[in-house]
Amino acid sequence: MTEPSPRSAAGTQIRLAASAADRETVYRFRYDLYVDGMRKQVPGADHAGRRLVEPLDTTGRIYLAETDHVAIATLRVNWSGDFTAEAPLPAGLVGLLGLEPFLDRWPAGLSLTSRLMVTPDRRGSVLLNRLLAAAYQDALTAGIEFDFCYVPPYLVEMYLQLGYRTYKPSVTDPHVGYLIPLVLPLRDWASLRTIGSPMLRLAERAGFDTATPSQAVAWFHDRIETEGGPSGARWREPADWERLAQGLQAGADAAPSLLTGLDSDDLGRLLRSQVVLRCPAGERLVQRGDARDEMFLVLHGQLVVRLEADAGPLATLGPGQVFGEMGMLTRTARSAFVDVAEDAEILIITRQALDRLIKVEPALAARLLFNLSCVLSARLMAANDRLRADDA
How many whole angstroms separate alpha carbon 211 and alpha carbon 209? Predict the structure, then answer.
């Protein structure tokens, strides 16, 4: 049986938005999803025309996914060789993504992936992968060596599974929130094979030589630090499970925690299926008003919760404590800011990851959900106690 093309399957077509009409469809689709749906304040958004058009669109390759001629997803990719003196690569992006060494060595071999958007009913589906796969195949053909992007925490796991990796510290955008820069060395065949990336199969079907090492990949390993990156690293060694279990269990037993009743083997199975962020002190991990699909578990370090951006701490979060659970469960906007007070390691648990855990590890998922209900009950009781104290 032949695998479906990344550009068409099950009635969905993916193509380049080449015409003016196609691009207008994308601009309005972006506005509906991002400005109306997610309530994002985007500089330059055309509110009167209900369009979201940006300078990068001038040189960008814009992909459009449609079902029955209705837009359901889009993606923009910019190739470094397409920028001109009239429409240059923005200096802000060069700094944000740390592109200087890449541009010095591979000036026409870079691509920038951005504005990946999909309708809410398709989130968690293979559509995101198919859009990225279509862009990947085009980039391989064009001789692109590295693709860059920056993503919110809930998307890190998907990108890591495709072959992207962390390579520099995360950033906080005042309009978008906490973002993690990622890079994909397109021809790192060994790495793609190790993680079982679908990109490798796509390259092989397209006839690319996936046995010969790439000079760009060798340069990347020699020049760019990748191991033990600042964020998005996975925990794989049994010693890591044991160390974390010992450090977290005391706190989990003392108060309701997501980890109550879990041993080191349980914790290992949980960590193997998730992504861990390493966050330096001073970063703002959560912005009030964000609407995201993940919750966070503190593995190490300390965070503080604030109701206002510059207000004093409302609460302090340490190892074993969870936050962001209401946003994940209800898909509503975050109600507070969360800042990293001490260097921290944070486990990301997305709604999609929890659904998957229910299917493949039902006993572990049941324990996590029971623990989460205990955490929420304890917080409700504490809130009731405060209200009684205020009334007294």
Answer: 6
